[in-house]
Amino acid sequence: MRDDQAGKVARNASVIDFSMIEDAVGYRLRRAQLSVFQDFNEAFSAKGLRPTDFAVLMLLTRNQGAKQSEVAEALGIQRANFVAIVDGLENKGFVARRKSEVDRRVQSLHITEQGLAYLDDLMPIWQEHEERLLAKLGGKAARDQLIGLLKRLYD
Amino acid sequence: MRDDQAGKVARNASVIDFSMIEDAVGYRLRRAQLSVFQDFNEAFSAKGLRPTDFAVLMLLTRNQGAKQSEVAEALGIQRANFVAIVDGLENKGFVARRKSEVDRRVQSLHITEQGLAYLDDLMPIWQEHEERLLAKLGGKAARDQLIGLLKRLYD
DNA sequence: TATTGTTATACTCTATAACTATA
DNA sequence: TATAGTTATAGAGTATAACAATA
């Protein structure tokens, strides 16, 4: 078997033939998402904020008092796993839980004044992140096109 | 504070105002990728195959004898974490490690005859998966457009 | 000294079951 | 009985450090 040799000859150090999977939708989605999340994490690492934390704060600005399980489902997170996320945001003082008076089983979530101020502080970082993506994509038209296509895969 | 009440009134049971993040590229990428991977996993669960395993087998068909660390890097997986993946494929008899005669540090990876037969068996499932995505996207033109945009985010 | 594969380890994310308090 | 939040736990995926064999 001379596969080793044949491979060595046909391929130089780090060139792999990708033709079989480079156009697989799932593969491309994974790589793109990893790249975008890495950019996000590098931008927000100093703030100790993860994408999900940011999404929760953003959501609450327009959904004050939303049910905890409602927010979790909206973000595709199981309610059991969402508890620790809210715990973290609550410990930092950015989110407050209040027992609903209508149904004492539910916790309604509120972004605090401190949380809003924090978001204000974060918005420029967020904008810069989105603008880096915009530059890579080649403009708003391309971005809107991408969003539209992604929505067809999940909405 | 009547946030609970105000929220309750403005929003019915499970309707959350998403306007703040619905057009965030990273959020849309994550949801789309989760949806696509879920479809993949449901299709392949009976075969006990994960997306990464499939990608490795696909890659090896055109890169017989490739270095283990080369394949890992091509797929964006760290070499330390790639060991267990190759172990699994080797235990199933789909991949073989052979010590390179040129550099005895490197393991060159080969897909076996059994691995090729397995892939043949899997291809219809793969095709159906890609066609379900194609249907969601609305045709090949849309798919190619999406792939092109994703490549701009990472290539 | 540097690199490849490997082991060990830790941390995050995700999935499931079961408990509690309320309804 | 059913539901919201919670706890505990197990499984993936990922990141880092260190080691042996080899270059």
Automatic annotation (TrEMBL), chains A, B:
It comes from the Bacteria. GO terms for biological process: response to stress. Residues 22-155 form the HTH marR-type domain. GO terms for molecular function: DNA-binding transcription factor activity. This is HTH marR-type domain-containing protein. The lineage of its organism: Bacteria, Pseudomonadati, Pseudomonadota, Alphaproteobacteria, Hyphomicrobiales.
